[in-house]
């Protein structure tokens, strides 16, 4: 256990003003103020299931209909959600830094595309996207913002724990549009026990190894490998600042901890 991190915003801002390459690592907490539920907070269950139950290859193998209903619900839910002041502050910060010839990258665990919608450009999606599909047969990855993603899922996916809807037959779930293929599609997201995309991991490593300041925003820092990124940066002696409502198992690695909602903290920290 390291020393107690500082909450001195002026000291943080002095470092920020001199930084040339900044990594902003984000998690579900950055979207909480947009009304997107976090995984381990209130509202983190869908029906009676947690991410650990549904976000796995074995859940999809044994019940692709149930898993597609879960992702369909989350895709449809995003239509009424918008980027909040935290996403906006991050995007504006990147644009300002870029104009000054300095570098910012966002490494996000989120799959909701709210950073893109806020205007961030250098984004690495560690866990994929709600709005991409991957074909199990031909492996093709495609952007997909259709609502609903297929007719058979229209009106399905209610999160109510009492919901006992009929399963959708596999032939009516989202299918590959290549006529020669027609394979079953899956969400292009990273489930538990799956490896992260090696190209994305390589770019994330490059950003983490070359940054001279790191912000870690709204993540519980319990899911690997993302959980070790910011502690690794701190290990190199680079300043790391955590923005979270709570402390996390990683807090003691960091020089700064700012406690509160990131929609309020980041506009001040990055102004
Ligand atoms: C606010 C706020 C506000 C709220 N302002 N803050 C040791 C080493 C390596 C791996 C493992 C290991 N032990 C176990 C593993 C395996 C596993 C793992 O890490 N499990 C842990 C639970 C222990 N990891 C994996 O399986 C990974 N793959 C892997 O390791 O491959 C190698 C391997 C191969 C074969 C066998 C075994 C290993 C893959 C992990 C993929 C995670 N995928 C998910 C689902 C993505 C798709 C989907 O969304 O459905 O990603 S799980 C879920 O958790 C999602 C999130 O991105 C991820 C992280 O959650 P996050 O973002 O931190 O959210 P919360 O809810 O946890 O926290 C929110 C935070 O915000 C809280 O701190 C709040 O306080 C805060 N907050 N409001 C500021 N307004
Ligand atoms: Zn295909």
TrEMBL record:
Q: Which residues bind NAD(+)?
A: 27-46, 109-112, 218-220, 244-246, 262
Q: Where in the cell is it found?
A: Mitochondrion; Nucleus
Protein residues bound to substrate = 71, 74
**Catalytic site:** 127 (proton acceptor)
Q: Where does Zn(2+) bind?
A: 135, 138, 176, 181
Q: Which residues form the Deacetylase sirtuin-type domain?
A: 2-271
What this protein is reported to do is described as:
NAD-dependent lysine demalonylase, desuccinylase and deglutarylase that specifically removes malonyl, succinyl and glutaryl groups on target proteins. Has weak NAD-dependent protein deacetylase activity; however this activity may not be physiologically relevant in vivo.
Name of protein: NAD-dependent protein deacylase
Q: Which residues of the full protein are shown?
A: 486 to 756 of 757
């Amino acid at each position: 256990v390291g020393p107690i991190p500082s909450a001195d915003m002026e000291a943080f801002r002095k470092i920020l003003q001199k930084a040339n390459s900044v990594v902003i690592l984000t998690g579900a907490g950055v979207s909480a103020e947009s009304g997107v539920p976090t995984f381990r907070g209130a509202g983190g269950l869908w029906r009676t299931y947690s991410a650990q139950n549904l976000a796995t290859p074995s859940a999809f193998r044994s019940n692709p209909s149930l898993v597609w209903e879960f992702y369909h619900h989350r895709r449809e839910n995003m239509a009424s959600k918008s980027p909040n002041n935290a996403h906006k502050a991050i995007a504006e910060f990147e644009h300002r830094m870029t104009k000054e010839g300095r570098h910012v990258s966002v490494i996000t665990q989120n799959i909701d595309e709210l950073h893109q919608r806020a205007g961030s450009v250098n984004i690495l999606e560690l866990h994929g996207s709600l709005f991409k599909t991957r074909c199990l047969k031909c492996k093709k990855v495609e952007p997909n913002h259709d609502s609903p993603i297929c007719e058979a899922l229209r009106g399905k996916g209610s999160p109510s724990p009492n919901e006992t809807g009929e399963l959708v037959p596999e032939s009516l779930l989202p299918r590959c549009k290549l006529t020669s293929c027609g394979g079953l599609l899956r969400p292009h997201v990273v489930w538990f026990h799956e490896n992260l995309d090696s190209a994305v991991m390589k770019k994330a490593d490059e950003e983490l190894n070359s940054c001279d300041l790191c912000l870690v925003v709204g993540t519980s820092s319990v899911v690997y490998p993302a959980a070790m990124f910011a502690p690794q940066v701190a290990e190199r002696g680079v300043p790391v600042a955590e923005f979270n409502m709570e402390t996390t198992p990683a807090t003691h690695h960091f020089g700064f901890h700012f406690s509160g909602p990131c929609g309020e903290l980041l506009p001040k920290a990055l102004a």
